Amino acid sequence: MSPNRTAIATAIAATLALAWTAPATAQSTSSGTMAAMANTIVGKVSEASRGVSLEGAIVTVGGRQVSTDREGFFRVTGLAPGRYALQVDYLGYVRHESEVELGDSRGAQVDVTLRSTVAATEVGVVEVRASRDAQAMALNQQRASTNYVNVVSADLLGQFPDNNIAESTQRIPGVSIERDQGEGRYVTVRGAPKEFTTVSIDGVQLANPDAASRGVELDTIPSDVIAALEVTKALTPDMDGDAIAGNINIRTQSALDREGLTLRASLAGGKYQLGDGENQRYNATVGNRFGAEQNIGVLVSGSISRQGRFTDNVETLYQAGGGGFRPTEVQIKDYEGLRTRKGLTGRFDYRINPDHLLTFVASDSNFEDREFRDNLIIALDNFAAGSGETNGQARATFDKELRERTYDKTIRTYNLSGEHFLGDAWKLDWQASRSEATKTTSPRMQYIFRSGVRPQMRYDYSNPDFPVWTILGRPDAPATGVNVPESWFAFRRLNDRYEYGEEDENALRVDLGRSQTFLGDSGDIRFGVRTRQRDKMFDDERNRNGSAADFAALGITMSDMLCDSVSNNFDYFLTGRRFCRDIFDRYAGQLIASPNHVRLIPDSLTGDYRASEDVQAGYVRLDANWNRLTMITGLRYERTETEGSAIQFDSVTRAVTPQTARRRYDNVLPSVHLRYEFSPDTVLRGSVSSALNRPDFIQVAPYRVINEPDGTIVPINEGNPLVREAFAWNADLSFEHYLRPLGLLSAAVFYKRIDDPLFVASRDEAAGAQTLRITRAENGERGRIHGAELTWQQTFDMLPGALDGLGIYANYTYAKSRAELPFGLGQTELPGTSRTNYNLALTYEKYGLNTRLAYNYRSKFIQTFDISEPELNVYWDERASLDFSASYALGLGWSVFGEVNNIRDTRQIRFQGQRNRVLEMEGFGRSWLAGVRYQF
Fold it and tell me: In the listed set 84, 100, 123, which residue is the last one of a domain according to the structure?
């Protein structure tokens, strides 16, 4: 068993064992000596029932207003000796008011415990409502923020049936996801391309195992090992500037977030309806406070899930021809795979005293996807006269194949940080971090068999989802459909491929700030420097054996490699028997050992590259407060130095030439954020900020592939080391009204003006009698994104009797984008822009029962551009999903729960240009899960 799995299993076992002996109530322990300096009031705010620290509580002292940090601490400095009224306001809890006396030579310490409004209204009864308390924590953190931030706690996300971090983010206003075989992978914020969003863990930007994009594959990270998700949509000067859409920060849990022991665990099992695959999930969290003053926190979280997923998939590729467009290739695939996701996070916090905190966090997330893909490929050519995109006739060539592919992705972060108050005014923060990501694809092998029979075939796409195919002139062919005889096929080739990519980033951040009085009634000024050094590489090796003699030496035919199971996608696309899963182990070795198994030189070289990116940054930030008005303004400077190496390959001469490239550029990123508080429950925010998006590494790698001429046209694919970064000005305005006892009504509008948006485009250059058609990354002139967000969250505690358990969680986002393509090729939407996204969840929590019916909708969006044929741009069609989750508390911390995903069995569809040209239709069915959970 691997070390990761051993650690997680040990944590789960320890948690479940401790659960039987854990006391029924949380221990109340000291938060440590909190002697404050003169002119200073320090304190801690926590809730009364479990001792959980309350972050985002608004504390008012003598007209000064501050908010509590994640440990519930607050600090008010620069006060004269005297008596002060202290008020603590926290949504969902009873407001606290008291009086504090500040002496001449010594500060004051205040510990405040708040009672939930639910507990307060039921005399003698404390009813803990987990999702309600989780919602309270998130809303209070959001309310206290000056810039525009959405916060969702892990406890609230845990009420949704989500498998990974990507799926969790889709519940947040303005956030949508791209899926792979029905499961969330990439995140899009406010309709911007996925590359416009950065992802971090506790402020450490994640390295990315994807070789082709900066968009982080968030399906790697389980949703069970986090404390909260923070989505910052308006960057402040102290934040990394490469996030035009925003930053998603994954916050880890800390043992110092609550008093006493932290103990949680769950185990669950279920099924996937399609393919009857297993659905298992296990997680545990163990943490405690140590030391004489309970000021040391140690916490470990672990998670394992296994998903036996089966996917029906049918694809049709359209190309220009016959005065319009025609289907030129059909692929009927079924996927059978096992996805294993593991996560392990450890956190150590040492609260030396109220002025000094040290933290070390290490996280490891691993995603392994082992997959078999059966595929029948039909290539169409030699079209009959009058053939179009709906009806026609063509010659058909059939390939039947099996691919076995396993990829293993890992993302690790290491984070050592400190927080230090230096005297009465200065504060020093620092962070040293490393992020690592690897992706290995091995094995990736593929048998291909081709039909020696190439019959005429009539096609009818009147129903684009379920077309009709009829093979003509062959009595041994089916009357309709493509379940052609196995005897038609002969060995074509064995493909053998290996891919490896890695990326790592070392970073250091130092921030120094102090209180200031030259602007506003109070405030702070901060300075900081940051360095990030990122390295990336990718290696692609491809080999092939296409010898019919080598296969004949095995003494078998394709039929000997087929088993009894049948491929019949959507109960309509019958393609015959599927391949046995052991044929690579049984037959590939002899083919690989043959001299005819050769390396494909162009493919094995042209995808390889190495790149480095060093970012040096500095900033100044000024915070000022005037009674109800708060301002953050400042300036950030970033210098970027890039270096890359790849090869130039000439397909005609077979010449290989190493290439290198370097570039250095500078960016200045100003911003200003305003927050006006009409009342403690009504907040107006406005901001103007700037950000950038650096090109993908593959776009600037200096590779160049000169392909074989097509007539007088010489196609060339290359990187563009000189392509510029996109730069954006962002304007945001939001209005929030917080509902008592717990809820939110909000509206926000946003506008982004983007200079130099990035596209992959082609241009022609004359070269004597030939024309060089060069395809590479290019900059458009400008683009824009604008839209609006609406949010309504509310618990209906004011309703009588059993109705007070009702709640609603709803949000709506509208986004529209437009960008100018390079070379005057026109305008288009940006990839990832859905006009409409919304979530609607109806909840009930009462008498130990917690249920949630969640509906998510995303309208269509463009995925990729076809510069030469814009009418064939690829779109994802609209999709809605309906999910349900429920849990019931058994007492003493135990509960049972269940989840059902994709209740309506919705499919996922891509199309080229318009809906009738279906590029891909994918179905993955429903899934369910049931289990037991313990929480102390």
Answer: 123
Domain containing residue 763: 262-935
The answer to the question of residue 154 being in a domain is no
Task: Report how far residue 193's alpha carbon sits from residue 834's, in angstroms, rounded to the nearest whole number.
Answer: 11
- Burial string for 561-571 (b: 16+ CB within 10 Å, else e) reads bbeeeebbbbe
The answer to whether residues 610 and 462 belong to one domain is: yes
Query: What is the rounded end-to-end Cα distance, in angstroms, of the chain?
Result: 29
Check residues 122 and 602 and name the one with the higher pLDDT: 602
DSSP state of 872: G
- Inside any domain, residue 201: no
Task: List all residues 6 or more positions away from 377 whose beta carbon is below 8 Å from its beta carbon.
Answer: 329, 330, 331, 398, 399, 400, 401
Taking the complete model, does pTM exceed 0.85, yes or no?
A: yes
pLDDT (tens digit, 9 = 90+) per residue, 811-864? 999 999 999 988 888 888 999 999 999 999 999 999 999 999 999 999 999 998
CATH of the domain at 871: 2.40.170.20
Residue with tokens 């969003």: 197
Structural domain includes residue 231: no
| pLDDT single digits (tens) 36-84 | 566 788 889 998 877 888 888 999 987 788 999 888 889 888 788 888 9
Backbone torsions φ then ψ of 616, nearest 5 degrees: -110, 130
- Listed in order, strand segments (DSSP E) in 570-604 are 573-579, 598-599
Question: What residues have CB less than 8 Å from 419, skipping those under 6 apart?
Answer: 356, 357, 359, 427, 428, 429
CATH number, domain containing residue 42: 2.60.40.1120
From 106, 123, 140, the end of a domain falls on 123
Q: Provide the number of structural domains found in the chain.
A: 2
Which amino acid does the sequence have at 806? Answer: L
817 touches 783 (CB < 8 A): yes
The total number of residues shown for the chain amounts to 936
Residue 518 lies in a domain: yes
